[in-house]
Structures are given as C-alpha cells and as structure tokens.
Specification:
The structure is a single chain. With about 525 residues, the chain is an all-alpha fold. It is built from 30 helices and 2 strands. Among the domains are: about 100 residues; about 55 residues; about 80 residues, Serine Threonine Protein Phosphatase 5, Tetratricopeptide repeat; about 35 residues, no CATH class. Strands 1-2 form a two-stranded antiparallel sheet. It is globular.
Length: about 525
C-alpha cells in the first residue's frame, strides 16, 4: 500500500518539472517536440492538463504549426473547455479558419463540454476571415440565448465580423443596443464604415467618440487615404498634433501615401525627418517603401534613391517602388538596370516588378525589350500575366506602330483576362495615330461596351475621322457625346503653398487663391 500512496507524488513531481521546462525554456517548436516526446514515453501525453499546456504552446509561439497542434489535440481522450477553446482559437488565426467552425460543431455534437464566453470570439473571427457574416449571424442568435451579447469580448468580435463583411446595418444595431461601448467597439465601427466607403459616417462616429486613442486617429487617417480623401487625411493629422497624440509607424505610412498622392513634398519631408528623430519608429520595409513612393511621386528621384540605398533591409516592395519610380519619372534605362540588379540579388521578381520594367520599356518606346520581358515573366518566372501586364505591352506596341501585333495580343488574352478600358483606349490611340480607322472603330465600340461613359473613345474617333477628311463622321461622334450627355473629365492639378495643398480644375477660376496669389502661382508654373 505504501508504494501506491507514494507513487503519485513522484509522478506529479516529474510532470511538474517538465511542465516548468515547457514554460521557461522552450522557445521554439523543436524544443517543444523534445519535451513532448518525453511526455509520450512516460504516458502522460494524454493527460488533459499536460496536453492543454502543450497545445497552448503550439498556437502562441511565432513558428506556430497548427497541424502539430491538431495532432496533439486529437490525442486527448476527453478534451476540457480550455483545450477546445485553444484549438478553435488556433485555427481561427490560421490559413484554414473553416476548421474552427467544424471543430465547434464537433464539440456540440460529440462532447459533453459546452461552449462558454471565450469560445465565441474565435468563431466570430473565423466567420470574419471567411467573409460569412450571414452564417455567423446564426451563432449570434446562440449568443443572445446564452445572454452573452453584451460581454465586451464577444460583442467586439461580433461587431468586427459584421463590419468587416460589409453588414453595416447589423453592426450598427449591435452597437446601438449597448450603452457601455469601449474604445475597441468605437474603433471597430469606425474602421468598418471607412472600409466600406462610408467615410462621412465614419467621421461622424470619430467626432462622437467620448475618448479617442491612437488607433482611432490612425483609423480615421487611413480611412480618408483609402477613400481618396488625401487632403482630409492631412487635416486630421494636424488635429492629431494639436491634441499632442504622437504618430506611430501606421500613422506615418498612411500620411506618406497621402503626401505622395497630393505631391505634398514638404509634408513628406517632415514625416521623413520625424522618422529619423524618433528611433522607436523602425526604418522597416513598409516605411522605406512608402518613403520611396512619396519621393518618386513628388518627382524627387534622387531623394528616393538615397532612401533606397541607405535602407538597412531592402524588401521586394522597396525594389518594386524604386523601379516603378524611375520608370515613371523618365529614367527608363535606370529602371531596367535596377530590375537587372534585382534579378542578380537573392530576391525573386514578382508580378509588380514586371509591371515596373514593362512600364520602363513603354516609356522608352522599346518594343523588343517589352516583348522579351513579357516572355521572361511567363516562361522563366511562371507568372501569369495580369491586366496591367497586358496593358503595358499593348500600349508599347500601339505607340510603336505595331497595331496588328497589339490586336493579336488582345485577341489572344480574351481567354485569360478580359481587356479593360485602358487596353482598348491604347489600341484606339494607336489606330488613330497610324490611320487604322477600321480597326479603330472596332476598338472604340469595345471601349464603349466596357465603359459607356468613357469620353476618349468618341473624342479619338472624332479626331481620327477629321484627320482623314471625313468630317461628317467626326461630327456624328461629337453629336453622340452630346446626346448621351457624356463630357470630358476636366484636368485637375494641385500645388503646395506654405504647407497647404490647393487643387485646380482646367478652365476653373473659382479657387479663392487665384485672386490673392495669381502672380505667385504663375511664377511657380513658369
């Protein structure tokens, strides 16, 4: 009897020792597997407490192996609630979130364990990842029956599911039903409306927030940038500064994108200096790419090159941004040289890299190189051409006068990608430029099919007919535009004066600054 009474404490002591090793000395999956092997040899791997600890370690470490975690879980004879919640959470964060839902069903059907408040957030996250808020709404009903709808953790993931899937009325209803909303709930709603293009509603929510944290400011700024309201994003940033909220990496990236779109060089340079002055903001690949893009879009390629050259780590996005920046600023040969350097590095070009080098060929008018890179992309790198790749090639061929070859490319691509307005417009331009009016008529008809409100098809056909002496057909094109009430989109430009961005529309004279700073503007434009 004494042996029986003394054995369990020894076993418990050994088990506790190895569990302590698991928690204090295991840093990666390899370490875990060594400890796990010991538990298997001693027959303790099926113990619910031991298995739960191993399972938790599997899904919380950076080098998570969800398949290994599932094998561990499947060996547990009677998983407890912690084990079920852990494996469901693990799959909700994986590339196969559907498994979370299947495991939940298995839990309901084949286990005596019932889900509790910590089970549901992972499931709502899985439905969010899958874009299946309609199915998640059934789970919402179960939550209401259990009286958990006002639990902050459950409610916030429920709001995230509805808003991220575009179910904004449902999200708003849940939001309005609870009187005690925390910052997470407010931010979730703000981001949901901004993501779905309801930026004005997002701004109203932002203004109503009782307390705004850094995430709130970043969400509002990125929401404006996402919806093309770049000037508004900069205005919110100024308000953020007035309230002494420090920008972080996410703020900087959004603002650099806004500065790039507006050509706000001074604002972009200020942000660059801010990053230099604040070591807590790491000069990572995302920041470097945004800086290169901003300088290139502002036309300061030399500064973009300095950022690229001095970057501690150059990710593929940095290379791509530099190649595209060079190509779009008239440095086609340098862009091609950069692409060659990329090929020789240990980073493999992707589809964006080829858009960059094909753009360079287009601007150089190099048909031969464009053909070669297009074939290289398909044959060596096994990259399937996208609409952008075809657009670059067709435009290069059309500008080079190879209209028949451009037509062949378009006809051959139809089985893979449908030509868009840009491609038909490129072919139409080439037909107009080189007198191929019959083919141009076909291209114009296709352009109108893709976009019936596109004015360039009518304008180019008018110009082509007029140049060929057929003024009657040219007038008909203009009359068709008038009948369908299609107008040319006026050109728009912007200029930065005293740190402020001013936009001007072609033939417009309503901007107040025209009266006060007419001479200054013209001196800058001359």
């Amino acid at each position: 009897m004494s042996l029986l009474t003394t054995a369990p404490p020894i076993a418990i002591s050994v088990q506790s020792s190895h569990l302590s090793t698991l928690e204090t000395q295991c840093t990666n999956l390899r370490d875990l597997q060594m400890v796990h092997a010991h538990f298997i040899k001693t027959g303790q791997s099926k113990n619910s407490s031991v298995a739960s600890r191993i399972l938790s370690f599997c899904i919380t470490k950076p080098d998570v192996d969800i398949n290994y975690a599932y094998r561990v879980f499947s060996q547990i004879e009677n998983p407890n609630l912690f084990s079920w919640n852990t494996i469901i959470r693990g799959f909700s964060n994986s590339s196969i979130p559907k498994m979370s839902i299947l495991l939940f069903i298995d839990m309901l059907v084949n286990s005596s364990v019932q889900p509790q408040r910590l089970t549901y957030p992972s499931l709502f996250k899985a439905y969010s990842q899958l874009g299946k808020a309609r199915d998640g709404a059934q789970l919402h009903g179960r939550v209401i029956k259990q009286g958990l709808q006002f639990d902050p953790f459950v409610r916030n993931t429920l709001l995230c599911m509805y808003s991220s899937c575009g179910y904004l009325p449902e999200a708003r209803k849940c939001f309005n039903e609870d009187c005690f909303m925390d910052a997470v709930a407010w931010n979730t709603m703000l981001m949901g409306f901004a993501k779905c293009g309801k930026i004005d509603i997002a701004r109203n929510l932002f203004d109503e927030m009782p307390v705004r944290n850094q995430i709130s400011w970043n969400s509002m700024i990125s929401g404006y940038v996402r919806n093309g309201k770049w000037a508004e994003a900069l205005l919110v940033f100024r308000q953020m500064q007035d309230e002494n909220i420090q920008p972080n990496e996410f703020t900087v990236v959004s603002l650099l994108n806004a500065s790039a779109r507006l050509g706000a060089l001074k604002q972009g340079e200020w942000l660059h200096d801010y990053v230099k002055r604040n070591p807590q903001i790491e000069m990572n690949t995302i920041i470097v790419t945004a800086l290169i893009d901003m300088y290139c879009k502002c036309g300061i390629v030399e500064s973009a090159w300095i950022v690229f050259d001095s970057a501690p780590r150059k990710g593929l996005s940095c290379w791509n941004s530099m190649i595209l920046g060079l190509a779009n600023n008239g440095h086609g040969n340098k862009a091609i040289e950069m692409f060659t350097r990329l090929q020789r590095s240990n980073i493999e070009p992707d589809k964006v890299s080829f858009i960059g080098v094909l753009t360079a060929c287009n601007h150089l008018g190099s048909v031969i190189k464009a053909r070669d890179y297009f074939r290289l992309m398909i044959n060596e790198y096994r990259i399937k051409p996208s609409i952008e790749h075809y657009g670059c090639l067709v435009d290069t061929l059309s500008r080079g006068g190879l209209i028949k070859e451009a037509e062949e490319v378009i006809r051959n691509m139809k089985g893979m990608v449908n030509p868009d307005a840009v491609i038909w417009g490129s072919l139409l331009w080439g037909c107009n430029r080189y007198g191929k009016l019959e083919l141009g008529k076909w291209a114009a008809e296709k352009l109108r099919e893709v976009n019936s409100n596109e004015s360039s098809g009518y304008v180019l056909m008018h110009n082509g007919n007029a140049a060929n002496g057929d003024f009657e057909k040219g007038v008909k094109e203009r009359m068709l535009m008038k009948e369908k009430k299609i107008g040319k989109v006026p050109g728009c430009s912007s200029i930065e004066i005293d740190g402020q961005i001013h936009e001007f529309v072609a033939s417009g004279n309503c901007h107040s600054i025209i009266q006060s700073k007419n001479h200054e503007i013209f001196s800058l434009l001359m």
